[in-house]
Fold this protein.
Amino acid sequence: LRTGRITIGNSSLNISQAGLVTTVSSANYGLPVSPESIATAFGADLALGVFNSDVTPLPTNLNGTSVRVTDANLNNRSSPLFYVSPSQVNFQVPAGTASGTATVTIFVNGTTVASGSLQVQSVSPSLFSANSSGKDVAAAYVLRIKPDGSQSIEPVAVFNQAQNRFVDKPIDFGPETDKIVLVIFATGVRGRTSVNNVKALLSGQELPVDFAGPQGSFVGLDQINIPIPRTFKGRGEVSIILRVDTRDSNSVTVNFQ
């Protein structure tokens, strides 16, 4: 590596040696990750400032920062970037990344600033939560379907100003004729072998899902639709784990009134 500093405007960073970067799932901050999932890399001197991408398709270079993933088969691919800052980079794991141990390398203006290993599997179900911790109330909503086919969307979490945190909003089943579908958000699900191999475990009770795949409008985000039987009415707080091809996700919660 060259020794010195990269400077653009009033921003600069030390490039005397490459540092270590730790990469995890952006949803639950765990491993492994999977192709096309959303990942977060933590380190130092990863960018010359704080920048967000506001275009689609996502860029592979964001104000000088770029990410390369070298998979277990030694294939190199550039990663689409959501966000970069000196301590954190959010990126999409490139499509086609092979399972096994990969290497993540981060560059600033073409110079290596950090690298580290990353475990990749074909699926790595990781549930998002409302508070972005991968714990507590799910990042989700209820889809209510009326007998006439009309639909409405209802939140499962609200921000409590007094407590300064997200809290659950109990799900009201409503009339017997209403159908309730819980829509939760994840990453690392779309590589599932089939939707029949995706199950939702609600406090240990296994439920089938209607849909498990790309959400469609946000890069790397997956959506899972879970029809909820009325037997869950009055259950209170319930844990949710997603099982995809025998691999389990982190646990989040909802509340049934």
